[in-house]
Amino acid sequence: MQTIQLHDKHFAPYIDATTIEARIIALAQQIDLDYAQERPLFIGILNGSFLFAADLFRHLKIEAEISFIKLASYKGTSSTCNVITAIGLEEDLSNRHVVIIEDIIDTGKTLHSFMQELKNRSPKSIKIASFLTKPSALQYPIVADYIGFEIPNKFVVGYGLDYDGLGRNIPALYQLSE
Ligand code: XMP
Ligand code: MG
């Protein structure tokens, strides 16, 4: 694999497609064991998780459903803090086992905020599957239950993740060059 350029920046090969696939198959096997008979509802968060969600879901053998949402952040009226709301979440979550599928947990802010909204809909359980986590960047109390790879606090692209819109279609993961 060679260094690539997206817009003005260069990215170096980081995790190859074969390694990614093997890891996702292992995660799917673990989820199969944990959710046998439960018919969980997976909620993929667009845009970044679309490839991870597709590959993870494809490898599941249990009965399962999947839906996709977008998260939009807006300024709350009385405070300066951003509120994150889900667009496109039509399913009745009461009494459902929910598994959120995210591309990457960085500070954890996005998921921390979304979890509050999700809890209001009274699901039976909520777990998080994140393709990537950056443990050293975490600032919110978010714990992913299924993690593809823990990575250092460096910007990455590929396999659904983008730099300013580009790079999502690259089948492997690349890391920003110094
Ligand atoms: P927080 O801080 O809310 O951020 O956990 C999660 C969102 O930040 C974006 N993000 C990245 N996107 N490469 C990317 O392409 C990265 O290395 C990266 N780090 C954070 C991403 O949109 C994610 O949903
Ligand atoms: Mg992005």
Instruction: Give the low-confidence spans.
Output: none
Could you give the order of strands across the largest sheet? 5-4-3-6-7-8
Mean pLDDT: 94
Q: Characterize the largest beta sheet: strand count, sense, and whether it forms a barrel.
A: 6 strands, mixed
Name the features:
single chain; 178 residues; alpha/beta; six-stranded mixed beta sheet; four-stranded antiparallel beta sheet; 3 helices; 10 strands; globular; binds xanthosine-5'-monophosphate; binds magnesium ion
Could you explain how this protein is built, in words?
The protein is of the alpha/beta class and 178 residues long. The chain has helices spanning 17-34, 50-58, 109-119, and strands at residues 4-6, 9-15, 41-46, 65-75, 82-87, 97-105, 125-133, 146-150, 156-157, 173-176. The protein has a six-stranded mixed sheet. Strands 1-2-10-9 form a four-stranded antiparallel sheet. The chain is globular.
